[in-house]
Every structure is written in C-alpha cells, then in structure tokens.
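Entry 14. Structure prediction run on the chain below.
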Amino acid sequence: MSTNDYDADLRPFKFAIPDPHGQAALLLVESLIHGLLERSIIDADAAIEIIEAADSVQVEVAEAADGAGAPMWRSHALLSVIAQSFQLYGDRGGGGHPPLRSV
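Output returned:
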C-alpha cells in the first residue's frame, strides 16, 4: 500500500503546524481571484460570492464530520477573513489591493 504526505499517521504534528499543501493552494487561489479582479474579469461581489460558496461547503463538511471536524472550523474562520478583505475592493470601486494579512 502506498503512502503520501496526506497520510495522517505520517505527520509528526497533527494540526500543530499549517499544512504546506493547503497554504500553497490557498495562496494560489487567493492570488488568482485578486488577478481576476485587477483585470476586471470579475467584480468584488463575484469574488465574495466565490469565497462564500467555498466557505459554505467547508461549513457543511465540518458539520457532517461532527467532533472530528473541529480543525475544519479554522478554515471557516480563514475564509471569512478572506471574504472581508475582498469587500475592500467594493469600498474602493474595485481598485487597489486589500491590506496584507498574515496567514
């Protein structure tokens, strides 16, 4: 049986440190949404709608996981902060970058 980085038994720290794969994926998607906004391909409302849709799915998964889904609520909190940061685009008429934040 093959194993990979996602096998929980191989991770020395369970949720003690951020998952590098998840961080890279999140950074890539967030950068993509920023790029779409800057090129006027989507507007701030569409960006927020995309993020809220992802958040809604995350909440459903966390609720379905019951107690085992507790770490998933951290993702919910992070998606909420990202959605709030994209609201700044609407406040500025779509221009500029939201302020940087730590992940």
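The mean pLDDT is 76.
Filed with the rest of this week's runs.
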